[in-house]
């Protein structure tokens, strides 16, 4: 098990220069030193504009704060509204999307993975104090990110803004110390990797 917290994160400009992302975790790409195999981050979107392009990367986005945003694929009519409580939005990083804010700035959680290396999933779990949530065994890597509150997991406390990582974990159980929201990110290597 490994742990990261706010002191380990770094703020970085967006690839297209349109904003700032807090990079929580970055795994290097095995053959491209300038690239990444997987990246977890939180973006603050303060104004309308285009998403950065990441060819060969699968992106998963989940709104954390704000009223939401409407997304339009380049040259098409408005297609997607990302709002609080909705499921995540997944898309290929080479697709050009423009964003329109629905009521002021938003913050969103991003999982980006090189699709030739692995595939990722992102799930949001809300727990009341004392509630339990069982996570099935996973053959890949699993990260837990504390959005709010505190939970116990495998003898460790996951607090707000912390990340816990397990490689090839067995079944885990989350127990809410308080009302809490946790993001579960799973990374599965592609066959032959």
TrEMBL record:
Coiled coil: none annotated. Gene3D superfamilies: Jelly Rolls. InterPro entries: RmlC-like_jellyroll, RmlC_Cupin_sf, Uncharacterised_HutD/Ves. SUPFAM superfamilies: RmlC-like cupins. It holds the Pfam family HutD. Transmembrane segments: none annotated. PANTHER family: PROTEIN VES. This is Histidine utilization protein HutD. It comes from Melittangium boletus DSM 14713.
């Amino acid at each position: 098990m490994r742990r990261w917290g706010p002191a380990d994160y770094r703020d970085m400009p967006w690839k297209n220069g349109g904003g700032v992302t807090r990079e929580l975790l970055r795994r290097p790409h095995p053959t491209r030193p300038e690239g990444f195999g997987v990246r977890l981050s939180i973006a603050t979107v303060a104004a309308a504009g285009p998403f950065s392009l990441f060819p060969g990367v699968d992106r998963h986005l989940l709104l954390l704060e704000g009223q939401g945003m409407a997304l339009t694929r380049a040259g098409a009519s408005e297609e997607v509204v990302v709002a609080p409580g909705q499921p995540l939005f997944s898309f290929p990083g080479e697709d050009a999307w423009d964003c329109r804010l629905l009521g002021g700035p938003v913050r969103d959680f991003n999982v980006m993975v090189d699709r030739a290396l692995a595939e990722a999933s992102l799930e949001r779990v809300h727990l009341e104090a004392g509630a339990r949530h069982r996570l099935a065994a996973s053959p890949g890597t699993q990260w837990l990110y504390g959005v709010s509150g505190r939970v116990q997991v495998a003898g460790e406390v996951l607090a707000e803004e912390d990340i816990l990582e397990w490689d090839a974990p067995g079944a885990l159980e989350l127990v809410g110390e308080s009302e809490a929201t946790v993001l579960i990110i799973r990374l599965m290597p592609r066959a032959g990797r």
